[in-house]
Each structure stands twice: as structure tokens, then as C-alpha cells.
Write a structure and sequence with these properties.
2 copies of one chain form a homodimer. By secondary structure, chain A is an all-alpha fold. The first copy, chain A, has a single domain, classed as Orthogonal Bundle (Tetracycline Repressor, domain 2). In chain A, helix 1 crosses helix 2, helix 1 packs across helix 6 and helix 6 crosses helix 8. Chain A binds a DNA duplex through helix 3.
DNA sequence: TGCCCCTTCCTGAAAATTCAGTCAAGGGTT
DNA sequence: AACCCTTGACTGAATTTTCAGGAAGGGGCA
């Protein structure tokens, strides 16, 4: 599909990564996508529509690359590590996703309407992580796994924000996350 | 100081906590502070100036209330715990500070101008935390203390965002943080 | 004391800018 | 023709920013 609609969504993803959800200007988006602003309204109705569709687009893309980890990982511990470190990479795609996620989280503080989706996505992620922890440490209790998963994912969000806001070098963030996984696993 | 300049900064903190950095309108701020919009420009030059000074104001205020813990704590471990849990409380002041801090962190992703102050405030905080960890576990290495401090503070930021965005009940966030402190200390 | 000058703080009003959103119309395809 | 896609030219409303000037207070000085 080289259709313009998709081109607009891709461009929106880029603009959001550059300016944030709240910094997205319809005109800048049209320039980025190489179309007129009117076309954007034709396809998405209004600014909120752009945001909604783009967020769906991003979520879908994230789901895809998260899912494509090696299907039958041998070492569950390495699998866990890989799954989490996936979010701390300096590729356009990951950067775009992390940025959008951070924006979403920050926006939800002021816009209750966003909270439900956010909460759902978060618990899904936490559960998946708990699952991986369970595979790495079958003897731990489910409660302990759940709590550790919440800590690791929350930590990852915190590290990610520091990385994106230029407070923490990427490699250092990755190292800290590895250590945290280490500490948590030793604990279980 | 009942000077208007400070009144404006206090009001800005409140407005940011209510609307977010990007939601701050100079006019709403002037109403909140009970002054004319012109006065705000007189004191802060432009919107960016308001933001910059407010950031300083917030970090300073946070530093102050973080520092005013009991001077000669007997139990360093309890001291550490108290220091960190201080940021997870549902009082207007803490909520305001945490919200504003989260906003600033999120804004810094897109506005490099904010990064320097943010980074400085963050390292100060991390160092102070590492210091407390050192007192709780004198035998650990400075490097280990520093890394643990980075993890705990980043985790706290992550938990704080989840709390403020309605994803995580406050008490649960506090519990997770306590456990993390536990895990990290056991580790050192 | 009374007067002049200078600075600081502050305001109302208006100008300038920014932005989302609209509309009439054109080109291509079926 | 009927339909889909697309655009340039605009508009109205919201916001930021500028500006001319007023009130209040201090210092020097006749």
C-alpha cells in the first residue's frame, strides 16, 4: 500500500516521536507526509481522530515486534532479558514507540479518557513479564512473580524516560536494567 | 515573601500540576496568581522563561522537603525508606511536585532547553540516595551504591507515573517500592 | 519641607501569531 | 455522470507577546 492514508500514519508516528502527542501540529504533519492539511481531515476527521488512529497504528506495530521474539527460547532467563531490553534500543522504531508510550502515560495524568486503554496495555505487559519470570524461576510464587514484574516494568519505564530525556546514556540504562533483572531473579 | 514573583511561581506549579506543562496558558496562570498577564512577562520574559523558572522553583522546593527529614536518624535503613516513600504520598504538595516533575521530565524529551537543569537535579537526587544506601550498607562499594540508587530512583519515577496516571493504587506503589528497597539492600 | 528625577512594579489594550478546522472546486477512474 | 481523492485559499478563535504609560517610593538637594 503506498496509499496516502498509511503514509500519513507513518508520518504522524515520526512527528509524535519528534514533538510529542501534545506537540503534534496538523500542519507539520501534512508537511511531513507531503500532503495537504485538508487531506488529513478528509481521512481522519479531526485532530483527535489523527491521534486515535496513530496510537492504534503504533500499538499494533509494537505488538508485532514484541511478539517476534524467538518462538521457543531455550534459556528463559535470556528470553526475559531480551524481552525487556528490546525496549531500550536506539532504532527509529523503538524510539518512536517508547516516545509515544511515554507521551501517552504523561497525557493520561491530565486526560482520564486515556486511562482505560493505558491500564489495559500495562497489565497485559506486566502479566507477560510475570509469565517469563515464572518460566525463569518456576519455584517462586505467582504473587512474587507478579510483584517483580511490576517492579521491572515500572523501572523500565523510568529508565526509558531518563534515556529519552537525555539524562541517561542508553548503554547505562541497559546495564542498570540487566542488573535489576539479576537482583530480582536472585531474590525469587 | 509575599512578593508577586514568588506568587506567580507557586501558581505556575499549581497550574502545571492541573493542566500539564503544555496545558499551561499564560492567562490561566495570571488568573491563578491574581495578577495581570503583563506582569508575568515583566518578570519572566516569555512563556519559556516561566517554564524554566518554575522548574527551578519546583526542584528547589523538592530538595528542601526531601532534606528536612529528621536530622539524626537512628536507623539508616528506615531513613532511606522514609526518604523515598516521601514522594509517594497523596498530599497536595507531593502530588503537585510529582505531577510537575513528571511533566518536566516528559517535556524534556522534546525540549532540549530543559535537559540541563533536569539532569542536574536528577544526579543530585541520585547521589543523595546513594549516600543513604551507603549508610545503610557501609560494606558495599560506592559503585554498587550508585547503581542501586539509580535503579531505585528510576523505579520511583516509574511508579509515580503509574500512580498519577491512575494505573496503580498509591498503597500498592508504596508496597512495591518497599520491596524494591528490600531486594536492593539484601543484594548489597 | 518641597521639588525633581529615576527605578521598580504593574496594568489595560491592542497587535501579532498560532492553529484547528472549512469550503469550493479540480482531476482521475469506473 | 457518480465517486473517490486531493488541494489551495481561507477563517475564526485561542494565545502569546508587545507597548505606552501610571502609581509608588527613594535619594539628592535647594
Amino acid at each position: 500500500m503506498s496509499d496516502r492514508r498509511t503514509a500519513i500514519l507513518k508520518a504522524a508516528t515520526r512527528v509524535i516521536a519528534r514533538r510529542g502527542v501534545r506537540g503534534l501540529r496538523v500542519e507539520e504533519l501534512s508537511a511531513e507526509a507531503g500532503v495537504s492539511t485538508s487531506l488529513i481531515y478528509y481521512h481522519f476527521t479531526d485532530r483527535a481522530g489523527i491521534l486515535r488512529r496513530t496510537l492504534e497504528f503504533i500499538t499494533e506495530r509494537a505488538r508485532r515486534y514484541t511478539a517476534e521474539r524467538d518462538p521457543d527460547a531455550v534459556d528463559p532467563r535470556a528470553d526475559l532479558e531480551q524481552a525487556l531490553l528490546l525496549e531500550l534500543q536506539d532504532t527509529p522504531e523503538v524510539r518512536e514507540n517508547s516516545t509515544a508510550w511515554g507521551e501517552l502515560r504523561a497525557s493520561a495524568v491530565f486526560e482520564p479518557g486515556l486511562r482505560e486503554d493505558l491500564a489495559k496495555a500495562t497489565t497485559t505487559w506486566v502479566h507477560a513479564t510475570a509469565e517469563l519470570l515464572g518460566r525463569a524461576r518456576p519455584l517462586g510464587t505467582a504473587t512474587a512473580h507478579a510483584a517483580a514484574a511490576e517492579r521491572l516494568t515500572a523501572l523500565l519505564e523510568g529508565l526509558s524516560m531518563r534515556w529519552l530525556s537525555g539524562t541517561l546514556p542508553l548503554e547505562h540504562a541497559r546495564e542498570l536494567l540487566r542488573q535489576a533483572i539479576d537482583v530480582e531473579l536472585r531474590q525469587l
